[in-house]
Specification:
Structural class: mainly alpha
Radius of gyration: 23 Å
Helix content: 55-70%
Order of helices and strands: HHHH
Length: 98
């Protein structure tokens, strides 16, 4: 018979009882956040995941949209980083080094 302790994420001693799946979600969240995904996207991804396999296309679409956003941010950063390095008087003209 299930007790209330077994149904919650706390054990009967009041200590949080993480399962392997919980740890995988944490690893995924850390990885995705380190890549730059917003929290809202992670929440939506988890909601879709918990809704079942019928949401696989929606999950892929969400990830592809986020990948496009991150790629644009990366491209913009890469373009902007060269402005001070190439053109700023403090750095000299790196295109014409001896």
């Amino acid at each position: 018979m299930d007790t209330e302790c077994e149904k919650s994420s706390l054990n009967c001693g009041g200590i949080r009882d993480y399962q392997e799946e919980d740890l995988r979600w944490v690893e995924l969240a850390v990885c995705m956040r380190n890549a730059g995904l917003p929290i809202e996207s992670l929440i939506e991804y988890q909601r879709l995941f918990r809704a079942g396999d019928s949401t696989i296309p929606a999950r892929l679409e969400l990830l592809n949209e986020q990948m496009d956003i991150l790629q644009k941010q990366k491209d913009q950063f890469s373009a902007n980083i060269w402005v001070p390095l190439c053109c700023h008087p403090l750095f000299g003209d790196v295109n014409h080094r001896n």
